[in-house]
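Researcher: I'm comparing several assemblies side by side, and this is the next one on my list. It has 892 residues spread over four chains. Same procedure as the others: predict the full complex and return the structure.
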Amino acid sequence: MSDTIDLLRRQVADLHQELVRYGLVVWTAGNVSARVPGEDLLVIKPSGVSYDELTPENMILCDLHGNVVEGEHAPSSDTAAHAYVYRHRPDVGGVVHTHSTYASAWAARGEPVPCVLTAMADEFGAEIPIGPFALIGDDSIGRGIVETLDGHRSPAVLMKSHGVFTIGKDARAAVKAAVMCEDVARTVHVSRQLGEPLPIAQADIDRLNFRYQNVYGQRPAAQ
Amino acid sequence: MSDTIDLLRRQVADLHQELVRYGLVVWTAGNVSARVPGEDLLVIKPSGVSYDELTPENMILCDLHGNVVEGEHAPSSDTAAHAYVYRHRPDVGGVVHTHSTYASAWAARGEPVPCVLTAMADEFGAEIPIGPFALIGDDSIGRGIVETLDGHRSPAVLMKSHGVFTIGKDARAAVKAAVMCEDVARTVHVSRQLGEPLPIAQADIDRLNFRYQNVYGQRPAAQ
Amino acid sequence: MSDTIDLLRRQVADLHQELVRYGLVVWTAGNVSARVPGEDLLVIKPSGVSYDELTPENMILCDLHGNVVEGEHAPSSDTAAHAYVYRHRPDVGGVVHTHSTYASAWAARGEPVPCVLTAMADEFGAEIPIGPFALIGDDSIGRGIVETLDGHRSPAVLMKSHGVFTIGKDARAAVKAAVMCEDVARTVHVSRQLGEPLPIAQADIDRLNFRYQNVYGQRPAAQ
Amino acid sequence: MSDTIDLLRRQVADLHQELVRYGLVVWTAGNVSARVPGEDLLVIKPSGVSYDELTPENMILCDLHGNVVEGEHAPSSDTAAHAYVYRHRPDVGGVVHTHSTYASAWAARGEPVPCVLTAMADEFGAEIPIGPFALIGDDSIGRGIVETLDGHRSPAVLMKSHGVFTIGKDARAAVKAAVMCEDVARTVHVSRQLGEPLPIAQADIDRLNFRYQNVYGQRPAAQ
């Protein structure tokens, strides 16, 4: 148990460096969490600590209502949203939140990113949808995430006027979704600056998504 | 006293690397200063020295009229503006100036950045306002900064046709404001390229700002 | 023979770092391959392995139908397209595939990049053409690449709604074409955002291309 | 004499890293040269050699007609243009050429960058002008640079459909001009994407330029 938590502390701390590497975050905005499998616990970034200073030791262990179980710092101010997702989506093992530029630009207009790239069909299987405007401080953000992604293929939701939340079977998959979300939000934005991207037929989106989710990558440890 | 100044020399030298890291500056443009608490003194970057060569030792100690007290180089050519701010805003402990791309692009149009992102409501609590066109060489720039920010929640001002000045309780807070200013100036720019970002209700801006300024981050040493 | 393959394993592994350096790829998207000269074999990236973890040893050796000859991982999911190109273009020694942002943005609109820069005339000798929309899983992508580039000066093709494939006499030349493709796709995009780039006369494009392909660089080992 | 040349070899090799650092070049495009003071000689980058492999030793020494005096490689294919500038502008000690994205985007439209930023007034003192379309291979490019910059305050010229050439009293000043040229070309581009940047009165441009060229930086070793 304690070994699992130690591993997750290291993994969550390290995955924040992927947010930095891909330019998804500035200063201390943005956070990654992981569910502790089989426990009502999650591991998350401390609030207001810079990415250079994140270590396995200063990650925060919380229960699934966001109460600190172990840790010297306050947890990310987005912990309530992460916790809500874990409580309502038992299939989710990782959650990521960023204000990455292009995804947030779509979110600021309240406009979903249309699925006009084969890589988007692969990873998202559909448009990247818009969630409601929601204030921090209660369950509004978490509920907006869960309700928007419910029954949706996309592991990413653009919260209106705010930024992105992504989910995954583990923290690494959620980080991958955050990286890919910004990448396709940027490419589709750039494409639309000079005209309309061509649509992809729904049947082709379906075929691409099915193949990617079932065939791509190394087996058995896909991703 | 001398220990405090030594610490500030190191802090100011190091904080310039944050300007580099976040791409806010090229060559030698841009500068950070810190007030020496309880003294009529400030620590600032030397003029025309490259970011690679900044050390605690070559930072310049000036009085609050921009006269050099200690230092082998000339101080930043923006020292008069920094000094003016410290003379007229006793609550300010740090000042930053950059020509960061997106903020300067709004400044070149003389157009404030509208508050259409929750992260902007958090950090700026309002639009990022425009200050007057002012020439270097007397108190015009400093006065423009102070008059524009007087009674404004925003710690950043876009000086018309010029660039950004930010203030903070210390140099680190002013650097954070400069980083966030460019980040939101970029996101709102990108969003507006393809339509109009949705407004956020004033009451929601007020709520977000109050919460962020009073609750966010680690206590007691919040951000 | 085995020495040649070892050299190609190292070269292909290393060249992936150029894709990272020039920002052409995120996560595990994008791949480089090289033909084994004189053999019906190619060396290619493993599928779904991150760029940090690529080594000469984990590159995959395949035959020219994409069957693994040597390697512990599955080969890139784009291997069939690479293999098709090698089978039908005996002059090609290297193939690269990316979803680089600006090239993919043109591809998403199905619009070729017009030849309006002397550097484009040098390297591409013409517009960068659009290939058909094609699904992964059979020879459609490979055939689309070969048919589009047949008799075309450009070593790059923008596959509709997908991304870029480039070819070269060896893997390094194909990587160079991928880097230059994104560079000119970006510059022409940016130029067109504020008006129409000036055309270059066909005779000048011809002169520039002839000179560059025959005179530029170090001799005898050009590029 | 030989010591001076050794110093210039090192300086020119090192300054190419500034082109890389500021993202002005990809692959092997772009080059820096320096005049050997008091001699009819220049030091320049070899052709088609990657930036990682540039060393003081592989820099090329040429006469002012571009003939190699010392060096194992061919000199940059732009050597004739550099040499022409040195022959006709005895005040010039350094020349830089790049295809940097935003400057080249203005060049592709044949449109000068208007002087709408105080930093542009400082460094360029005017718009950044457009030079003629000119083919490589004779003196056309060199002549276009010299004729365009003759009597112009700007140390940068945008060669139509091509890229940027900058000049300076030494190679470092020319590199600074190339860095600042891309920076202001980008900021003015971004500003114009959402409206018209405000003009700066000519008298203010004159004042800013005079002050910057005569007062800014460290004395006596300005820059």
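Model: For your comparison table: Chains A and D do not touch (no CB pair under 8 Å).
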